[in-house]
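hi! just following up on the protien thing from before. the input was this:
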Amino acid sequence: MKYKLLGKSGLKVSELCLGTMGFGTEAGWGADKETSFAIMDAFAAAGGNFLDTANIYKLGTSEKLIGEFVSTRDRDYFVIATKYSLKDNQTNPNASGNNRKNMMRSVEASLKRLQTDFIDVLYLHIWDDLTPMDEILRGLDDLVRQGKVNYIAISDTPAWMVAKGNTLAELMGWSQFIALQVEYSLIQRSPERDLIPMAKHFGMTLIPWAPMAGGALTGKYLRGEAGRIKPGSNRLNEGSVLITKEVIAIAEKLGVEPAHVALKWTMQQGFSSIPVVGATKVSQLLENLKTVDVVIPEADMAALDAASAIDLGFPGKFFLEEGVRLNNFGGFFDKIEKRK
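and the predicted 3d structure came back as:
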C-alpha cells in the first residue's frame, strides 16, 4: 500500500480507504464483530490505515466496533474519519442537521463509541441548506483547537457552498476542509461539472463513495446475482449496462477483475483521489486490495471515459468548443501549459 497526503495537509493516508458502513448486523445485513475485526486486521496488514465511518452507520455499531478494535491496537497508526449531521436519535429537532448544537453533541457521542480522545478527520455528512457556513466553520475550528478533531472535511454538499466555506476559513484563519467525499464512479460522473474542479482548485482530496456503483460495475447484476440495488435504479439502466460491459471487456483484456478496473479508474484521474472500499467479508477486501497493483493503460482509460462520458452542461461544455478556445487562447491552446 502506498500513502497519499490528504488535501493540503501533512496527514498521510493509505491509497484506499476502508468503508465500514457495513460493520454491524442491524437491518438484517452486514458484518458481525468477528468478521469486522478480521477485515480491519487484513486491511492493516496490507498497510491500510484510513478508516471511514459515521455516527449513523449501523445505528452507531460501526463506530463501536472500530473503537473496540483500535483500543487493543496502536491507536496512532489508524486515521479514523467519521461524520456528523445525520440523526442518531429522534428525541429532538436539534439531534440532526449541521448546526453547532448537533455538531458538539454528535462528536461527544462519537468519541465515546470510538473509545478515543480525538477524531482524525471529521466530515460534515450532508448539507442541510439551513445552517450558516460561518456557524459550521467556527464550531469545527473550535473542535480542532480543543484537540477533539485533527482535520475537517465535507461530504455531499454543493460546490459553491464548499468554496464559500474554504474561502471564509482562509480569510478568518480557521481550519479549512481538506477532503471532499461525494458519489463518484464510471456510472456517476456528474461531480466533474463543478465539485471536482472546485476540489482541485482548493487542493482537496476527492474521496469517492460508491466507486463501484453499489456493485453494478462488478458485473454481478448482469450475471443475475442478487444485491441491494433495486430494479429501476439508474445504476442498472441501459447506459449503465453499456458502461459495465466496457469495464468487463477491459478487465478481461488486462486479466483482472471488473472491480479492479472500476476502482482504479477513480484513482487514475490526474488529481488526488482515494476511493472508499466497503467490505462485509474478508474475501471482498482481499480482492479489492489487488487494485493497488493494477495499471490501466492510457488507451483503455480513454475507452472508459468515452463509454461513460456525460454532458458537462454550461459552462463546462461551452469551454470545450473550438471557437471559444480559439478566442480565449488565440490559437495557442495546445501549446500552453495547463494547471493540474
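The chain has two domains: 3-309, 312-340.
Residues 119 and 149 are 5 Å apart (CA to CA).
cheers
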